[in-house]
Write a structure and sequence with these properties.
The protein is α/β, with parallel strands linked by helices. The protein is built from 10 helices and 12 strands. Helix 1 packs across helix 7 and helix 4 packs parallel to helix 5. It binds NADPH dihydro-nicotinamide-adenine-dinucleotide phosphate (NDP), dtdp-4-keto-L-rhamnose and magnesium ion. Dtdp-4-keto-L-rhamnose binds next to helix 6 and strand 7.
């Protein structure tokens, strides 16, 4: 089975390649310069030439703050690009797995978000990702849209690596403590993607298709996440860094972010019998890989 993944140096595409190889699956990554999602006419040739049995659409414009001033480019890459990929998947009669985000929600809800909850993005990035979802659904029923959140890994850029980098030169950091969400490990996303891809290829059941939420188990705030990162780093001989919890107003950014974007994993558990590991367990693996040091076993 040939699994074609868009993106060549992103967190999720790199994790999919690494995990796929270890499982003996054929993973082909396609990205710039062969294809450019902002230029839909570049997609069909290379995607079809890769002869996919299933397409995983991971590549995206992910710079949340920069998107506020580059809305047209973000919309092309996150909206029209995936829409075109879905048309190609339909022509090839193969399933499309697409990654979306918790930032499609406003954050106004009290509890966790289910797949049936109405989206209401509060940022350009969130709006463009929602547009991608809509365009995919219009192009082919043979799709799975996986909304994930707060992705981190040893690869690419992410909050864990940012915290460790900032911590090298600072003894304390101010981090927002009033935005709640679910940190999700790219290697866990890859595990889910490869399992779902294989099921979709084998089984045309419509119940396996549609929107699913896919996040690490548990929840925290960015400040809670940062504290866990520095605890794990200190256990491995890293420097102690204090995290000062602050309100969102004290950390002004161009993009607004949801105050609550916790996603429920119940539908995925029911339909696919799949749950991701608790985020602290995955964070431990990530820190071990990043530092090359395993945490000492607790007495
Ligand atoms: N990161 C996160 O916290 C979250 C991510 N997601 C979603 O998950 C998916 C994967 O995210 P993640 O792995 O973190 O993303 P990254 O930012 O790590 O990687 C993005 C990838 O997309 C590629 N890309 C960007 N623009 C284009 C373009 N115009 N044409 C082709 N390729 C392009 C990049 O390639 P290049 O090197 O050429 O720029 C890179 O390989 C995305 O769809 C994202 O929206 C959802 C929730 C949270
Ligand atoms: C670096 C830093 C950030 N923050 C805040 C800003 C923001 O509210 C929060 C997270 O910052 P980041 O810029 O790393 O995260 P952000 O870019 O908002 O991350 C998002 O990326 C996109 C792609 C997604 O799809 C989302 O699920 C989510 O992961 O932490 C601090 O409070 N202190 C700091 O020192
Ligand atoms: Mg960011």
């Amino acid at each position: 089975m040939r699994i074609v993944v868009t993106g060549k140096e992103g967190q999720v595409d790199t994790a999919a390649q690494a995990l796929g190889e270890s499982l003996g699956l054929e993973i082909i990554r396609v990205g710039r310069p062969e294809i450019d999602l902002s230029k839909p006419e570049t997609l069909s040739g290379p995607m079809k030439a890769a002869r996919p049995d299933v397409i995983i659409s991971s590549a995206a414009y992910t710079a949340v703050d920069k998107a506020e001033s580059e809305a047209a480019l973000a919309q092309a890459i996150n909206g029209e690009g995936p829409g075109e990929l879905a048309k190609i998947a339909a022509e090839l009669n193969i399933p499309l797995l697409h990654l979306s985000t918790d930032y499609v929600f406003s954050g106004d809800k009290d509890g966790v978000y289910s797949e049936g909850d109405a989206p209401g993005p509060v940022s350009v990035y969130g709006m463009t990702k929602l547009s991608g979802e809509t365009q995919i659904a219009a192009a082919t029923p043979n799709h799975v849209i996986l909304r994930t959140a707060w992705v981190y890994s040893p690869y690419g850029n992410n909050f864990v690596k940012t915290m460790l980098r900032l911590g090298e030169t600072r003894d304390e950091l101010n981090v927002v403590a009033d935005q709640r969400g679910c940190p999700t490990y790219a290697l866990e996303i890859a595990r889910a993607l490869l399992l779902i891809a294989q099921k979709l290829v084998a089984d045309p059941d419509p119940a396996l298709r549609g929107i699913f939420h896919l996040t690490g188990q548990g929840e925290t705030t960015w400040a809670g996440f940062a504290e866990a990162i520095f605890e794990g780093s200190a256990l491995r001989g890293g420097k102690a860094v204090r995290v000062n919890p602050i309100p969102t107003e004290a950390y002004p950014t161009p993009a607004k972010r949801p105050a609550n974007s916790r996603l429920s994993g119940e539908k995925l558990a029911e339909v696919y019998n799949l749950r991701l590991d608790p985020w602290r367990v995955s964070l431990d693996d990530c820190l071990t890989r990043l530092t090359g040091v395993a945490a000492p076993v607790k007495e």
